[in-house]
């Protein structure tokens, strides 16, 4: 059984996908998808030896070696053209690392830029959405879930030919999440508002005031307050 967080990621993967799961650790996600006949093929990429070996043993324990190839390496560098990947999942790492992996992969021609992306940043979802927008990806689904007192956002995006325009609220809150305003979403942003209030108070008390930073944070706080009011 998958965690609630990985279950959403799994549900977003289209049937018959050729998947690259990057930062796969135990390869739980591709294993679940393969066991349920949801994917044709998967590469499970891992940069660290221990998690890589966990993934190797999970895949062989479940007899899924035909469908899932576990590879040791950095980001998308483990992929080859022959893999014909059409879907990339990156879950459980920070937003900046997700962007870095996608950008490196593009520079090194390890992805075409047309793959479906399913991303679950642990922090800084905004930077992920901004990258998607700049890459002409449109977000077509989003979920926020709570698990073990932590909140996670899962974003599914597909490539389009047109220019994509998201405003600051779309980028920060998510175009779907901000409309739905689920309880988990409201809880998240109430707690973020408290953090910003605290940070702003500290910055105002500091010996060397940085007015620019204070203004930035105040602007952000006002957006949040407006969203949760
Ligand atoms: N994706 C799984 C999940 O969501 O449950 C595992 C998440 S785990 C917290 C993050 C994994 O990403 C770690 O095993 C880490 O070694 C791996 N990782 C970090 N940077 C990576 C990179 N550049 N390329 C491949 N894997 C990476």
Automatic annotation (TrEMBL):
Pfam families documented for this protein: TrmK
GO molecular function: tRNA (adenine(22)-N1)-methyltransferase activity
GO biological process, one term: methylation
InterPro entries for this protein: SAM-dependent_MTases_sf, TrmK
UniProt KW keywords: Methyltransferase, Transferase
Residue ranges of the TM segments: none
The keyword Transferase appears for this protein: yes
Listed name of the protein: tRNA (Adenine(22)-N(1))-methyltransferase
Native source species: Alkalibacterium kapii
Upper classification of the organism: Bacteria, Bacillati, Bacillota, Bacilli, Lactobacillales
